[in-house]
Amino acid sequence: MLVAEKPLKTYLQKYFGFDKFKGKQEEIITNLLAGNDTFVIMPTGGGKSMCYQLPSLILEGTAIVVSPLIALMKNQVDAMRGFSSVNGVAHFLNSSLNKGEIATVREDIKAGRTKILYVAPESLTKDENVEFFKNVNISFFAIDEAHCISEWGHDFRPEYRRLRPIMEAIGKVPVIALTATATPKVQLDIQKNLGMMDASVFKASFNRENLHYEVRPKVEVAKEIVKFIKQNTGKSGIIYCLSRKKVEEIANLLIANGIKALPYHAGLEASVRARTQDDFLMEEIDVIVATIAFGMGIDKPDVRFVIHHDIPKSLEGYYQETGRSGRDGREGKCVTFYSYKDIEKLEKFMKGKPVAEQEVGKQLLMETVGFAETSVCRRKVLLSYFGETYTQDNCGHCDNCLHPKKSFDGQDEICAVLEAVQAVKEKFAIEHIVNVITGKAENAVKLHGHDQLEVFGEGGDHDPKFWVAIVRQALLAGFLSKDIETYGTLKLTEKGLSFLKKPSKIMVVEDNDYSDAESDDDEEFGGGGSTPADPELFASLKDLRKKIAKQNNVPPFVVFQDPSLEEMAIQYPISMEELKNISGVGGGKAVKFGKPFIELISKYVDENDIDRPIDLVVKSVVNKSVFKVYIIQNIDRKISLKDMIKAKGISLQELLTEIETIVASGTRIDLNYYINEVIDEDRQEEVFDYFRSADTDSVGEALKALGEDDYTLEDIRLMRIKFLSELGN
Question: pTM of the entire structure?
């Protein structure tokens, strides 16, 4: 089928300017050129695209590449056109094209100018396109991101299941399927569904030696992300979040802290997404904050870090997303923030789906949990998942290997696990085995009479988490295998049976404990968190506040409220810019009262040799929700509060609470137009006089002092808003 007798390296040099192939590229291309179906499993950055790009230029006709992401087709086409003087050498065909553009693509294909055509699966299966392709000389089909065909893959696309009959309808030509992530189960699924059981399989090692893997507890994650990026200034990175809302929040936080970042998710206009991607590739921005929709096939070799704000739904997803860092073989840091509460949230999302789909999702999630919580070399766990054995004891490039936990001889514990699997006749998954060993008589345990087994309760002196870690390490050691078809049933291997007959010393470790990690869906950026305030500094700040309050003839709480002082005693701000970042300060208050506070803190830091957490002074993003913006705009327009509560269907108390929050954050609010309507001038003056001399801004105390017969709670709250806004903001 090869149309020229030149060595492949000649074509590689001619078209792409390279003088040698990477890894198995040459073998793969030779196999495809010989007319054979070819299945390529190669990690991100391994050079998969070359395996179909070069053959497309060598062979007669047009190669059709099926790709799931429209946003990235243009990127691929531009790259191909860059290697050729013929503009029509590469095209894409998808729903983003108008009729005129589709006609141009078809003309170039019929004229033989187009060597490679990128097609979305939905476009390939359209009847009019099938009919068109039947009359075109197709050199071969390439199915990129082939894991999309499997429900066990991390990005299942039902339309991929229709590809085989469509390709057969168009004509019998060789097929090359390519994926960067495929467990043995997914590999089999791909081959079955594409009718490629006889294909030549080329599997490269999944070990990316340059990547550093780290899992951190999900505590103050927003601050941790800003801190990490500040430590890696100017480097390109991707931050993955599971929700669009979180993408927007984190992107806004980074921008507020002087980091060149943009959000990327499916809720944005296609043109905005395309521009953002171009800005990232052209280094106009350093960081993309994205849902998993971003990055498939992106050709940016120098992404230096990938951060997962949320744990991914599967290890395939994790591997592919982390694989976008360090594609040039240089530094790639992969940091994941983990809280088991996020797993529980993902499980809730699955409810309502078909039972089989839920079981698949749960199994994939549990593999992710195993990876996150393990104390074993992360590289070993990851490669084992993809059916590859990593033989080194310490990779030197993951948090567990760099900071190893104490290990102990676990031969008795391993034997207990293997005996339990044997006793339940190899028909149950991890959770059931652990319940049996720890003596937990769950319904399923009682139902099968496993509470009567000799092994029942044998490991009750350890908690279930301990035994889960032992089971995982028995799997890693090859003593057990997991039958994914039956949703994770544990089976004894020959090696496991041999170990049971003749146990020997085997070192094991307990899992990492992330029980203090919190899912942060409700976190407020820029707060002091749980870090205790410096008591000595806090006392000094209170004294200073009292002094300044006297000078200005206002109560201390008007200057700064206690939470603001507490945060100053945690963050140690020593510049006006840093002070503005403290919650409840804002620009106006910082200018009005801030200078002496900065001077006091600066002196205190110097005298006490304080190691200031400057990299943790995260500029907060004021949470101006749609409702808060609505309130501010309507007060500016002097709309009655009564009209606002009627329009929004809320109580006056709820509206006042929102206004109090706005004022507390340093925004000045002018409610005189409304207050003058409901409280006469003398009573206003009386409340003002009270707050001028009060020790506290408590509404309850004010009401008690001024008399409940003369004032309502709402009167006092309105006057306190006026007082704090006029004197403090």
Answer: 0.62
